[in-house]
Structures are given as structure tokens and as C-alpha cells.
Amino acid sequence: MKESQPSTIYLKDYKVPPFLIDKTELTFDLDETTTVVTSRLHMRRNPASGKSTEPLVLDGGEDVKLIGLAMDDYALPPEEYRISEGKLIITATADEFVLTCETLIEPQNNTRLEGLYRSSSMFCTQCEAEGFRHITYYLDRPDVMSVFTTTIIADEARYPVMLSNGNQVEKGKTEEGKTFVVWHDPFPKPAYLFALVAGDLAVKNDSFVTQSEREVTLQIFTEPHNLDKVDYAMEALKRSMRWDEEAYGREYDLDIFMIVAVDDFNMGAMENKGLNIFNSSCLLASPETTTDDSYLRVEAIVAHEYFHNWSGNRVTCRDWFQLSLKEGFTVFRDQTFSADMHSEIVKRVEDVSFLRTAQFAEDAGPMSHPVRPASFIEISNFYTLTIYEKGAEIVRMVHTLLGAEKFRAGSDLYFDRHDGQAVTCDDFITAMQDSSGVDLTLFKRWYSQAGTPVVTATDEFDSASGTYRLTMKQQTPATKNQPTTLPLHIPVRVGLLDTSGKVLTSALSGSTSEEHVLHLNSSEQTFEFTGLTSKPVPSLLRGFSAPVKLHYDYSTSDLLLLMSSDTDGFNRWSAAQQIAVNELTMLINQSIAGESLSLESQLVKGFKALLSDESLDPAMVALILTLPSQAYLSELANPIHPAAIKEARQYLKTLLANALSGEFELLYNKHNIQGEYQATAEDIAHRSLKNTALSYWVETNSDQAHQATFEQFRTANNMTDQFSALSIAVHSNNAKATDMLAAFYEQWKAEPLVVNKWLMLSASQDSSDAVASVKALMEHTAFDLKNPNKVRSVLGGFGQSISGFHNEDGSGYHFLADQIILLNSRNPQIASRLCTPLTRWKKMEAKRSEKMKAELERILAQDLSKDVYEVVSKSLA
Ligand code: 0A1
Ligand code: ZN
């Protein structure tokens, strides 16, 4: 352990910056081993800070070597500045001056992938959140916005493409015969949005005419061998640009918009102004190499990064505690965009399923934090599901409370009022409130209170007056960090059905309708619906109108009724999931008690009815047929018995497969349509239902089903079908599975993104020697510890292996801890993210829990990065 622990930064300590940087002029003399960066910062004291004597403190990093410093062209002697803990401190400054700073950095040795680094043969940058300080000394905080001019000098033969933000304004030769290009970005921006790329890249060109008829050049750059995989992203970009004009009135502002794909990237993608940089896994797509899920992900992430141009870049965050201001809003925008491009309900089910599984688990774990955190040690640890997904749910609730029209007016006001500013989550809500007149004072608590609220509903019917009374209570669980919790303003969308499944009209507070939005804003409230003749079945929290856990004592027949008849598609899915959760919980308890499993499943009836309903979207049918995941059942369990959950899921799946084997075979054949691959909602739906049916059919262990799997693997003309067949074979003990895995590698070994899928599937296999297998995979030529995608594939896949990762002897936990320790110094962000499964130790059954804790203690005893230190120490606290 380090002698001094990293310090905590608090929101309450926020102060405006003492200095501003009006203009930033950067020159990069690019070289693999040592790059020289010269910055000229046009600075002045910030009048708003009210202080005239404070020293100038610039952020830097230990990997930045200062080789020259001058103020207004006067070289500063060493006694006039000092460097302490990575910061450059200049005691005396004028009120206005130009600071010139020369630094040396080593992109080749940058394994953290923050700042300027090398990926394959190119240079690229990643500056969010605090990467710019690894390039040069700067006021590296989002509320310092500056106009950047960037000069890149390099050998043109090796780096013919040299890019930065804004427009290219000059190009020429230096005296030494190198090439220089100059880029100018007229929009003031914080340093986290700075970007630079240089390499021997191929480009796809296109253009877009904005609603005000300006032509924008669009360019996607990749390494030459990947240029055939950017067409889908380009089309997705144009759809995003059009959608943002139509849905939000937001037009693109520069004359050029560029995207670059890089192989080594810590996250998905980055919204640098005019020059987005993408993890290649989130940009490249071709039918042969990319699954449907990945196609949809490419589209969503292209949209997300593009939408940031307004929600993030034109209006940015005052400080990193406000991260959800840009991320929550932008996720909400990309979710709505995807819903508009495909199916609204399917998209909502997928998003909620993810939120309920992963974000709810985060919010119940040691890293639980409010959407606007009050403190952090390392901001990189706060790019979380809470900031992104729960943040998007908050924006969605505002949309529900205001209605579409007022929400749009609120968004217009927000962008108009704050264009060019760095603002707060409060400013966003204030704009929504000011434009709509809806009081959001209480609602704002969603930003400051962590944890998932539990809403419990009970009801009664008064037949004499025809009144249905629905009582709702809410409680957000208290934790050590948050000993008292307060009621929130929770919008609950509700409909009522009669026992034949017909939708009922009722009156609530004077408004008569088939659906009502209840405003639950105190710890207990009763809502009275009138105009009814018998006790209805309530359809509660339609569309998942708030990120809460809802408890209502539904009978199985109520759930079957909702599943077959609710007009809210989301709740049809939700009811089926609830039946499955109830049945799986019984089975899990049998398994824990050491009993042999037995169940009369009501889902058989439900699925039969579902399969005979021709009116349903096949994608919805596939979602309803999908049993709750191991991860979701773990989130619901306390304590978690991983092996019991696995056994229960397997039992129920086999039971359903045997009871409906004919139906699944028929379904498989019906949706097994051939033809040229298209990533349209319709075709994706057919493939998804077909492959879901196949995953059941093989559970009958029929030769025919196994043969169909093998044939699909062999003959598929697209990666979705081929990889589904392979996964199904691997997880159903198909006799040919090992050969199929080997053949798949042989077929695709030249395609790194496909190889990553192979790594993940191989690592997820359940076998008693899974640790040995995963070690072998990490020795394989296809593996590379420097590449985050590969690390995520292998260790992420391994995490899904119950007999491997969760092996009772603790060997899986020990192995993961070894990898975290190894990566801690090389790439702290990745190491920190790998800790997540171990941090859930308190919820695990006793034996495994102790072993996980011991591994966390072993990690904490090392000399740790801030990133890993924060996550591990908080999870042991
Ligand atoms: N702002 C990006 C996410 C991002 C965050 C940090 C990064 O590096 C540490 C990279 C990307 C987004 O929301 O897409
Ligand atoms: Zn984002």
C-alpha cells in the first residue's frame, strides 16, 4: 500500500477558475519516442474569481517533462516556478499574459491510453476526462473553454493524414523538410474535447446538407484494410444528423465532421469537437463479420457521439460532478433515436433489462453514488451506468412529467440560454421548469440521492361506489454513506384491465382516460380511480416510467393476463419476466436446499398463447421467450448462489424446451429466412426469434436440432447466424462444438473484431479446468494485453463461466486478481473496471464471499493507481 492515500475531491469545494485561457496555440512535433509539444496560452485572471494574487497552478502529469517555460517571451528562471505532485506552480503573474510551455512526452510508452499515444501505426489522443494534462501543462478542467489552433509537424511519408479539431487552415513544409498542417477550431472548448490523429489512413468521403442548406463534408478514417467496413457508420451518421435537426432543432456547426477508428481504446468512443475517435469495435461493420447487436451498437454510438456536439460540446459541464448533464441527456437522445429508427418497445425492453441488471447492481454495491456524485477520488471511475443509464432515466422522467411538446421547449431554452457555457444539472432542470411551468423542485432529489427506490403497491376495490384505491409506498434503502433517504417524485404510468384483458377507462382526479400518470411524491399516497364495475388488474409502471423496483402481489393468472393482453408492450414482457423470476426463485431455493428440482411451469401456457399470437413483432416474441439472465437473477438474489442460479435456469429452459419442442422446431423453420443480409428491424427480428427458438430446440437434445445448429454455422451468410449457432453449440455440449470453435478461428483469424468474439466465447466455457483454459487463451497469438478489447473479451468471457470464475475453490477470483495487479500500472482504467465482479463480494454466499474479499485485500496491499485504489478500498470499507 502507498504511504499517503490519494485525496478525495468534493463538489462542495467547487470554485470558479482563477485564470482563463482565451486562446490555446499548440504545436506537436510528432515522433514515436519523444514528441515535443509547444503551447502558447493566452491567459488572463478571471474577473469572476475575485482574487488578484493567487498563483497560477497548471495541471500536468508525471509523464510530462517540462523543457521550456516563458511568460510573454521572457524565459522563466527555475526560482520563479516549481513542479509539485504533477502540478506546475508559477507564483507571480501579470493580469494578462502569454505563457509558452515546451514539454516532452513519450507516446510509444503510453500504455494508459490517456493523452497522446500510439495505436497500431498511428498517433491518437484521448483527453476526457483528465488526459490533456498528460500532453502539456494546462488548466485541465471543463469550465476553462478556449479557442484552439493546432499545428502538427510530421514526416508526411509515414503520416500522410494529420488531423485535429475544426478546419484545416494551412499546410506546408518546415525547413527540415517535414510537413506541417494547421487546424483551427472557432468554437471555444474545454481541453477534454481536444483531439489529434496522425497516420497512414484511408478515408471515406461523403457530405450532408443541413436544414439551413449548408454543405458539411463527412469523413471516416480507418487503417486501409478496414475501409470496406465504414458504410454503415456513414449512413448512421447522416441519419443522426437529420434526426437531431428534426427532433431537437439542432444543426451541425462546422464545415467538416470527421470520425477515426482506432484499435486500442479504453472506452467505446469520444465526442472530440469535429473529430470523433472511435474504438474500432463500435464503428466497423460488415454482414460477414458483425452481428445484429453490434450493428445496432454502431448506429447508437455514432448517434451518441454526434449528439454530444450540442449536449456536451456547445453546452458543456461546469465540473466533472455534472458529468450526467451531458451523458444522461445524450444517452436519452440516442435511445430515442434508436427507438425511432427501429422498434420503440424492443429498444425500451433492451434498455430496461440492462438497467435493471447492471445499474441496479451498481446502485446496491459499494460504488453506489448519486447521478450527481458529491465526491470522487478518480473521475475515470465515474463513467458509470449510474451516470449514463440512470441519468438517462432522469431525463426520460422529465419527458414524462412535461409531455413531448414542453420537453422540446425546455430543451430549446436550455440550448439557447447556455450555448457556449459550462453549466450544471440544476441549470438543465431550471430550463425545463422555466419553459414548462412544471414544478421540479422535489424532482431534483433524483440527482443527489443514490440507491434504487422500492415502490410497494397494494389495492382495494369498493364495489358500492365503483372506486379502485391504489396505495403506493416508496422507500430508498439507507446505506452507511447515506443513512437517511427522502421520498422522490416518481411518475408511475398506470392502466387498468378487466379480468378478460379488456382495457378499462377510469377517472382519476377529474381526468378520464385509459392511462394515467400518477405523481408519487411522498412516502405513502392513495390514488382513487372511479367509474369501475369490478376490481381491475392494474398494469403498473408502464414503459418502466421510473427507475424503481416495483412490488405488487400479482397472482400468476394476473401476470398471464397482462402478458397476453396488456396494450403496453413493455408490461407484456415485464409480466412474462416476473412469472419466470417467480418460478426460477422456487427452483433456486430447491437447489440451495439440495433438493432435486421440480416445477409445474405456468410459462408453458403463457408461451403457447404467445406463439399462437400472429400479431406480435417477432423481436418482441424473442424477448418474451428469453429467460431472465444469470446476472439479473444475481441482482435479485441475496445472497447469490451462482451455481444454483445456473442449475435453475438450465432446468427451466429444458423443461420449456421439452414441453414445446414441436413449437420451437416450427418457429425455427418459419423464421429461418434466407437472403441478402440487411440490418433492418424486420430482418433482425426474424434472426433473433429464429436463434432464440434454436437455443430452446437444442435443449431437447435431439440430433435434428444439433444438426440444424451445425448446418446453420456452416452455411450462414452473416455473423449473427454463424455466431449464434456457434454459441448455442458451445453452451449445449454439441459434440461438434470444439471442432466448430477451431474452424471459426481458422476462418476469421485475420479479422481482429471477430477473433475477439471467439476469445470471449472460448473464455466463457464452463469446465472444471476453466482457469487453465483462460491462461492458455492469454498465451494465444490472438491475445494482446495492451489491447483493451482483447482483455475485456477474455476476462469478461471468463467472468461468465460459473465453474471457472465462480469455482468454489476461489481459483477464478485469484486469477482475476492477478490480472488486475498486472494491469494496475499499465492501464489503470481497465484494471479498475475489471474489479467490478469482486466488489460484489458482500452479496455472495459465505464461502465464495470470503475468498473474494481475500483477493480484494491482496490487491489493496499493492502500490495502487488512484483508479484501482478507489474501487477496492471503497468495496472493503
Ligand atoms: N464521453 C465519451 C466517453 C468516454 C469517456 C472517457 C474516455 O476515456 C477515458 C473515453 C470516452 C462518451 O460518452 O461517449
Ligand atoms: Zn457520452
Description:
It contains 27 helices and 34 strands. The chain is an alpha+beta fold and 877 residues long. The longest helix is centred in the middle third of the chain and has 24 residues. It starts with 8 loop residues before the first strand and ends with a helix. The model has no long low-confidence stretch (mean pLDDT 97). The structure holds O-methyl-L-tyrosine and zinc ion.
Short description:
Helix content is 40%, strand content 22%.
What topology emerges from the helices and strands here?
Blueprint: E1 9-10, E2 19-29, E3 35-45, E4 56-58, E5 65-71, E6 74-75, E7 81-84, E8 87-90, E9 96-105, E10 115-119, E11 122-126, E12 146-154, E13 161-164, E14 167-173, E15 179-189, E16 196-199, E17 202-209, E18 215-222, H1 231-248, E19 256-262, E20 269-270, E21 275-279, H2 292-307, E22 316-317, H3 323-341, H4 344-363, E23 375-376, H5 385-402, H6 404-418, E24 422-423, H7 425-436, H8 445-448, E25 454-462, E26 467-475, E27 490-497, E28 503-504, E29 506-508, E30 511-513, E31 515-520, E32 524-530, E33 537-539, E34 549-552, H9 556-565, H10 569-592, H11 603-612, H12 618-625, H13 630-636, H14 642-659, H15 661-671, H16 681-697, H17 703-715, H18 719-731, H19 737-748, H20 752-763, H21 770-779, H22 788-799, H23 811-826, H24 828-834, H25 836-839, H26 846-860, H27 866-876
Parallel strand pairs: 2-12, 18-19, 19-21, 22-24, 25-34
Antiparallel strand pairs: 1-23, 2-3, 3-9, 4-8, 5-6, 5-9, 7-8, 10-11, 11-16, 12-15, 13-16, 14-15, 17-18, 20-21, 25-26, 26-32, 27-28, 27-31, 27-33, 29-30, 29-32
The site of O-methyl-L-tyrosine has 14 residues, from strand 20 and helix 2.
